[in-house]
Amino acid sequence: MQILWRDHTGESAYDRARWNNVFNLERPNCSPRAVIKATCTEDVVSAIKIAGQEKCQIAVRSGGHSMFVWSLHEDSILVDLGNWKEIAVDADVKIAQVTPSVTGLELNEYLHANGQLFFPTGHCPDVALGGFLLQGGQGWNCRNWGYACDWVVGVEVVTAEGDVVFCDQHKNADLYWAARGAGPLFPAVVVKFHLRLLPDPTAGLRSSCYIYPANMYRQAFEWVQSVVADADQDTEIVMVAFYCESRGEVCFKVHFVTMKADGLAAEHALKQLHQGRPPGTFTEWVAREDSLDSLFSDQRMVNPPSHYYYTDNSYISNSVDVTEALEESFMTLPPGKPFAFWYPMYPRSRRPAPDMALNVASDHYFSVYAISNDRDDATRCRTWVEQTMERIRESAVGSYLGECDLKLPHDWYWTKDSARRLAAIRQKWDPGCLFCTVHAEQGEGV
Ligand SMILES: Cc1cc2nc3c(=O)[nH]c(=O)nc-3n(C[C@H](O)[C@H](O)[C@H](O)COP(=O)(O)OP(=O)(O)OC[C@H]3O[C@@H](n4cnc5c(N)ncnc54)[C@H](O)[C@@H]3O)c2cc1C
């Protein structure tokens, strides 16, 4: 087990370790007391013992893609799981056991090659399962296939006492409940996820795309909302606003991705959607053959590494006129790389809620990404994000942990009952607050 102590390690090796895999250039300048590179469960147990001897907290990093870099805390012991990649699949029962640092790309490549299986990972190929699943996980076709954590059947964790325990709906059910939505407030270290898998739906993957100019906002948005209820169950739907340099205006991309084993069935689903689309696109394609690789590459392009990011999101109330509520936010998108998107959550939002920590539900998810390679510009974009979120606060019913910084009271991210239950579980499993959560200036009431 490699341990890099802040006070006994060369500056560049220490910096490499503390920033290892951290995606966002906008990061707190925190100096953990030590970085422990854990590559097995015993290493995590040892790290917890060391934190006890040192009387300091433990922070955990799986893939480093937390937008707010929750893995970095001053004077903590940072347990970096980034070098520990294991995947084991039982294809007969379609269950995988996976370590938290495995990324979405790595997992789906492995599953494809070993049994033609699939897991609804995040859209960005490099997001690791650890942070993604703990906060819920809006993966591929989330509106139908559910949050990725709906597919978690068990977790192996190391507790604050240094015990290794398994959690599922029968054993340590409270931790299992928390492992599906507590995010950075999870009071243990996950060392393995047990995941239920789907048959690989990517053989017949097809996509359609319709890009509209700004003056078509209402027609495009109302159309895409109107198709959600009856759209094919294997079709992911999103509308993304981006600034088109060549046109000098905000444009709207309606994107459908259908994942089915049978390409003809996918084409049929997309052609049905095509029939009702309003005219006026300046670019479009219909039922094009596509692949997970190419979708992942697109995501890498819109979320480039080595940039400053600031993101936020809201679930918008089912009772408001979403077109009206989001219009100004979409239309004021600044030039450059920032983008904003609306992502329907129906029908998952109307199904009986599974018994798990993540349970804020609405039909509409809205998220904004400020992205820049220039710090000053990033500050300008951040102001736009903050103003946007302030503007729509009245129409919102909560936020998803994945793309926000937990600065509001907890019942904004969990329901009141869940926030209370989570606090009790944290008190039971981590009464001494061994595990770091979010940054002190955030996380009111943590
Ligand atoms: C470019 C980009 C695209 C994204 N796309 C999506 C998307 O499509 N859908 C979506 O839902 N989210 C998305 N996200 C958000 C992302 O899922 C979260 O930021 C997630 O936390 C990243 O997981 P990680 O393990 O890489 O992060 P890390 O920074 O390693 O972990 C974040 C925090 O989670 C906790 N944690 C992580 N691992 C463990 C563990 N093993 N045990 C206990 N606690 C742990 C810790 O508190 C840690 O600080 C995206 C983020 C980025 C940067």
TrEMBL record:
Gene3D superfamilies: 3.30.465.10, 3.40.462.20, Uridine Diphospho-n-acetylenolpyruvylglucosamine Reductase, domain 2. Its cofactor is FAD. One of its GO terms (molecular function) is oxidoreductase activity. Pfam families: FAD_binding_4. It comes from the Eukaryota. PROSITE patterns: FAD_PCMH, OX2_COVAL_FAD. Keywords: FAD, Flavoprotein, Oxidoreductase. Residues 28-200 form the FAD-binding PCMH-type domain. Belongs to the oxygen-dependent FAD-linked oxidoreductase family. This is FAD-binding domain-containing protein. It comes from Aspergillus avenaceus. The lineage of its organism: Eukaryota, Fungi, Dikarya, Ascomycota, Pezizomycotina.
